[in-house]
Amino acid sequence: MNHRILPSAQVDPSAEIGDGTTVWELAQVREGARLGAGCIVGRGAYVGSGVRIGDNVKLQNHALVYEPAVLEDGVFVGPAVVLTNDRAPRAVDPDGRLKRAADWEAVGVHVAEGASLGARSVCVAPVRVGRWAMVAAGAVVTRDVPAFALVAGVPARRIGWVGRAGVRLAERPGEPGTWECPRTGEVYAEASGELAEKR
């Protein structure tokens, strides 16, 4: 395979690392994880057991991606982002005994194609972040995010729409529900709280 793993990174032998992917210093990729081609795993990032990551995904420094997360192609995960996996986290059970892996059921975060998660944002599983959506830095996502939505705050709420270029869309004057990207000129249509590209 044509990939690069820095000497201080820990990559389990059962993990699959795609061509052109780089795993930087002090990162950890656990058993059974699968990373596609052209990915970047930043310094100190964590990829949990069995996590599925597509092609051309960027995990910035100290991002924590807990199993069973799925990240589709082209996803951006900013510095110190956390994708959780436990609805009711406890170190011990009601009798005070230390909980083991078999004592809870992991739930995952699914991040669809092209979406971006800003620095220090948290996705509280189980949630899905839609295609090309953008989560603002520091946001806490507790419910599904529609495709192309721009969400911010605690808990995260939609504050606008973004296009594939990551730029906030502007509603066309005199055309309610029609949005345009000021950078690319791409046009989008809004209906029932969802946004879709116009063909």
Task: Summarize the SSE layout with pairings.
Layout: E1 4-5, E2 10-11, E3 16-17, E4 22-23, E5 28-29, E6 34-35, E7 40-41, E8 46-47, E9 52-53, E10 58-59, E11 64-65, E12 70-71, E13 76-77, E14 82-83, E15 109-111, E16 116-117, E17 122-123, E18 127-129, E19 134-135, E20 140-141, E21 149-152, E22 157-161, E23 170-171, E24 178-180, E25 187-191, E26 194-197
Parallel strand pairs: 1-4, 2-5, 3-6, 4-7, 5-8, 6-9, 7-10, 8-11, 9-12, 10-13, 11-14, 12-15, 13-16, 14-17, 15-18, 16-19, 17-20, 19-21
Antiparallel strand pairs: 21-22, 23-24, 24-25, 25-26
Pfam families: Hexapep (PF00132), Hexapep_2 (PF14602)
Protein name: DapH/DapD/GlmU-related protein
InterPro entries: Hexapep, Trans_hexapeptide_repeat, Trimer_LpxA-like_sf
Folded structure, characterized:
With 199 residues, the chain is an all-beta fold. The chain has no helices and 26 strands. The strands form four sheets. Strands 1-4-7-10-13-16-19-21-22 form a nine-stranded mixed sheet, with no helix packed on it. Strands 2-5-8-11-14-17-20 form a seven-stranded parallel sheet, with no helix packed on it. Strands 3-6-9-12-15-18 form a six-stranded parallel sheet, with no helix packed on it. The radius of gyration is 18 Å and the shape is globular. It holds the Pfam family Hexapep_2. InterPro entries: Hexapep, Trans_hexapeptide_repeat, Trimer_LpxA-like_sf.
